[in-house]
Write a structure and sequence with these properties.
Layout: H1 2-14, H2 32-37, H3 42-65, H4 79-84, H5 87-106, H6 112-172, E1 178-192, E2 198-201, E3 203-211, H7 213-216, E4 222-229, E5 232-236, E6 244-246, E7 248-264, E8 269-284, E9 293-307, E10 315-325, E11 332-334, E12 342-344, E13 348-363
Antiparallel strand pairs: 1-3, 1-13, 2-5, 3-4, 4-7, 5-6, 7-8, 8-9, 9-10, 10-13, 11-12
Helix pairs in contact: 1-3, 1-6, 3-5, 3-6
Length: 366
């Protein structure tokens, strides 16, 4: 860009040529202090050097038209000199121009028309050179841009393909992965409650499971779990359901278990989950101090689960069958209701559940 600027400056200056012999007067250089100021500006420094070079070139041309072999030569400044920003470079080209001026003064009178024609030819040649250089630079720049665009397209295509492979690997290659922590929620209902006066509505539970197999080194699908349950027990004294009392029940269960995978492909996986645990519950009727129920025992869960082996959507649907049993103690509800002081509904109760599990942390490490 700096070369183009210099050539444009030269072309402009040649239009101002001359009204007397010598064709142009060499301006004396400024003082050293002024010349040093040019060192602070690349543009001003280049303009000053080129101005002396242009003057020297016109004087040298004048002498050549006269058929005189010049002693001094108009040397074109180099890029290194223009970038050096040393005032001594300005002085150097002043001296060249001044020497050529002295030679013109010492030479015979020149043919003005012949000289003007030669300088005009030099100006046209310079403009053509400038145009060719601009076109060449433009073509070179277009070539560089085209190559850069092709390279960017190639890189974008390569990165897109790699990202797609990584995404597919992450989302679909999870057949050998296992859950570290999972959270599940399910809706439950007791199949039979063992009494004419005790009923139940569907109720919810929440379970958290930790894969302890990797910690213990026992079995990769071995896990420990905790579950909170809130059964909806209802005492129904009137078979027309006009006299119903709701129990506030909180139950907890802890245990161990393990998954037994049955089949896994890229689109589907399913298996069995077996769990054994211990549960305990407490119930009371709100605002009735004499009501109570306390029960505990063993808990056995048989679960069938199914899902998609995707690490992006680590969800599983499951249906389970649960047994709650105490070997020596029946589930009893105590009230102060006349004729119904104790409602006894046996030792064993069964429930079915439908739920969804979210595998919070998934790993495919062996």
């Amino acid at each position: 860009m700096r070369i183009i600027y210099v050539l444009l400056l030269f072309s402009f200056c040649t239009l101002q040529m001359f009204s007397a012999i010598p064709v142009v007067e060499v301006q004396n250089p400024d003082s050293k202090q002024i010349l040093e100021l040019y060192e602070d500006s690349e543009e001003l420094f280049a303009m000053k050097v080129i101005d002396y070079y242009k003057t020297a070139l016109m004087l040298e041309t004048q002498l050549k038209v006269l058929g005189i072999d010049t002693k001094a030569k108009a040397i074109q400044p180099t890029m290194e000199e223009l970038e050096e920003l040393d005032y001594k470079v300005i002085v150097k080209y002043y001296k060249i121009a001044k020497a050529l001026e002295d030679e013109v003064i010492a030479a015979p009178m020149s043919d003005r028309e012949k000289l003007l024609k030669h300088i005009n030819h030099l100006e046209i040649s310079t403009n053509d050179s400038l145009a060719n250089m601009v076109l060449s630079k433009g073509e070179e720049l277009n070539s560089i841009l085209e190559k850069s665009l092709e390279r960017l397209k190639s890189m974008d295509k390569m990165y897109s393909k790699n990202l797609e492979l990584i995404r597919d690997s992450y989302e679909n290659n999870c057949m050998n992965s296992y859950s570290l922590i999972s959270i599940s929620g399910k809706a439950n209902t007791f199949i039979a409650n063992g009494g004419d006066y005790m009923k139940n509505d569907p109720w919810l539970s929440v379970k958290g499971t930790l894969n302890a197999g990797r910690i213990s080194g026992f079995w990769k699908d071995f896990n420990v779990w905790y579950e909170y349950l809130s059964p909806n027990f209802i005492t129904e004294y009137d078979k027309n359901q006009e006299d119903r009392v709701y129990w506030n029940t909180n139950a907890h269960a802890v245990g161990i278990g393990g998954k037994i995978p049955m089949m896994a492909s890229q689109n589907f996986k399913h298996g069995i989950n077996l769990e054994l645990g211990y549960f305990w519950l407490k119930s009371h009727i709100t605002n009735l101090t004499n009501s109570s129920s306390n029960w505990d025992g063993m808990n056995l869960n048989f679960e069938y689960y199914a899902g998609v082996p995707s690490c992006r959507y680590p969800f599983e649907l499951f249906v389970s069958f649960s047994i709650y049993h105490n070997f020596s103690k029946n589930l009893r509800f105590y009230t102060d209701r006349p004729n119904y002081p104790v409602i006894d509904i046996n030792k064993t109760h069964m429930a079915i559940s439908l739920g969804i599990r979210y595998n919070l942390l998934v790993s495919d490490l062996d």
